[in-house]
Amino acid sequence: MIELGTPGAGPAPAAAPGPRRLSPGSRAAAAVLAVAAALLLLAAAAPPDAGPVRRVATVPFDDQYAYSSDGELLYVPTAGALSAYRLADGRRRWSVALGASGVRWDAPAGVLLGRAPGGAATVALDPATGAELWELPGTVAGTRAGTVLLTEGDAGQARVARARTGELLWSGPVARTDTLALAGPGLLAVLAQDGAATVRRLDGPTGEPPVRGRVERRFGAVDPLGSAETLTIGGRLHLVDSDAYGTTVAAYRLDTLERLWRVQDPAQRTLHDCGPVLCLAGGGSLDGLDPATGERRWVNDAWAGVLAATGGLLAVQNDDRVLPHLGQVDAATGRTVADLGDGTFAWGTPDLLVRQDRADPRDTVVVRVAGGRATPAGTLDGTVREACEGAGAYLVCPTVDDVLAVWRVTAGR
């Protein structure tokens, strides 16, 4: 990596003439000129008023790797390195060697997780300095409540460690077809393809036996078109089995693995925590399920995907993947609160969306969403080619110039 030094000094200035006494009138005139010159210098130094949306930084970017941010620094991987830049001005804070992969910011633990050089292990870094905190074999399969789940597919091993310190809480053999999930603070669920299930308490007394039971799987053998995911909320483990023929969602008690309810759907669906309901998304509609019983409380056919849930409102989109139509839905009732038109929500900031400027397609408009109303916040001076990410008071967007552009969005924040 090439560091740019300070340019060398020019030739020494000629000797200044000796001091000259000024008459009172001359001193007054000089004072006026000095004040005027100072005002001109201040005006030249002050940044132009670019409105509520102002570009503050431009950072090199390789779109093969996923970047991340904590609201103060922007962490950008490249081939073999990870660099941290200040969001406020784009200045590089530090740079370290890292394996060729994206980077994950784990807020609860306050660490960065990425691939170690060589790619076979995970490394945790201090976000302030880039210093290595620990290194363990495996790749990140999930994080929760300050813990990280690491899996080694080839070796058939899994580990759970504290994300900040690397302290090992559990390790053991797993099958390639097992579904593993951090099921809550200090809990690991392992669901085998044949239905055998185990829930281990990682922070309990040494030797505490795990909870064992069985869960119903949609497919008994490995299905190349299928997938299995879990969602844990309020002491319940939700298993979502999906394949080309439909989706099955079942809820189990974590402490006993007793099944509480089961729902089947002929379409491929995904399950999301939407506050007062569980959202079943995809398949041409958005459905709100009662978390206690699995019964449908509401169905909204206008929307099919849920992107975020905040303050009782859901940021939603329709089924059109090319030109998604966005809206807001009341989580409790399923009622459409706002139809926001085209665009994409900023990841991590569902109160901001971006869309192409209809007057000048080379620019992108930022729209602020509040109370079901969309208000233009400003224009980005550049063409955004992918979804933007909200990072505190900033908006980070990949542009067609193959850079990450950072804008400060000040209005209403």
UniProtKB/TrEMBL annotation:
Residues 123-298 form the Pyrrolo-quinoline quinone repeat domain. It comes from the Bacteria. It holds the Pfam family PQQ_2. Residues 1-21 are annotated as: Disordered. This is Pyrrolo-quinoline quinone repeat domain-containing protein. InterPro entries: PQQ_rpt_dom, Quinoprotein_ADH-like_sf, WD40/YVTN_repeat-like_dom_sf. Residues 9-19 have a biased composition (Low complexity).
